[in-house]
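Morning, I've got a small favour to ask if you have a moment. I owe you a coffee for this, so here goes:
>
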Amino acid sequence: MAPYSEEYEILKENTKPVSPQAAPREYTVVYSVVLIFVYWHIGALYGLYLGFTSAKWATIIFNYLIYVSGGFAITAGSHRLWSHRAFKAKLPLQILLMLLQTMSCQKSVLNWVRDHRLHHMYCDTDADPYNSTRGIFYSHIGWLMVKKHPEVIRKGRTIDMSDLENNPVLKFQKKFYPILVTLMAFILPALIPVIFWQESLNIAHHVSLVHLVVGSHMTFAINSIAHAFGSKPCDKTISPTQSISLSLVTFGEGYHNYHHVFPFDYRVAELGNNYLNLTTNFIDFFAWIGWAYDLKYASPDMVAKRAKRTGDGTDLWGRAIEHADIQAKRVHPS
């Protein structure tokens, strides 16, 4: 029986699960994570109250800048640069993105990327860390509160991370992550307002939790809402969707249907909506000064052909293509 068992394991290892998949499983709650999330959210609500009643304007502006900077570090850095290699970055930009990503407190880049590459390779299956087949709560935040599914662990070992494991910037972050995240995400955001404009430590700390919680939910929303509500202009057979409103609050990450079809595109969206796609503008700026280069994108012809073949008949704004054609003729009559 031994040879059969080994052969079965090899076959099992190389078999890609078919989505949607959510086999019955036991959930083992990680209570330490639950308690951290409870504290963060209660503290953030208190911080929001302080922001409206007691905090200095400098503290509010300071935390807003941290929120925006951390958001760009996740969308441009963890996601488009390191997860999908959609563009390349010179050392100064890599260091900047790594430090700001640490400030967002969303795992080290290497852990973030492994989970995200798993998500793309095994989307909506038991090997997907945030499997949307298990419901919107699970894909949003619940997956972080329980131990990983055995398939996530098993398939995670097969994900190729060789392009990042020898990156000195990411190796440094991984090695010193507990120290760095404590300093960047908690100590500095609390102490800087106290030292520079005499904010109270209580207010500075709790207001800083607001940007931490809101920034986390910004990322979580792509894993959950962008797999539940919206249009599917590129591929109607998959769960990822496109949402203009979600793009507004996620710096351009809401064009998720497009992204799952063309994950290599640094824009994560078609041309024509870049003024909503702040991350694309962020990358374009650093390309202009020479810190970002080799920006990859799908050609308009490639996008049009795929949309015609598998799309749901909507355009990049979520409108029916027939309606879009009528509007175009009104603006540009032949």
Summary: Residues 27-228 form one domain. Residues 57-83 form the longest helix (27 residues). DSSP finds 16 helices and two strands in the chain. The two ends are 74 Å apart (CA to CA).
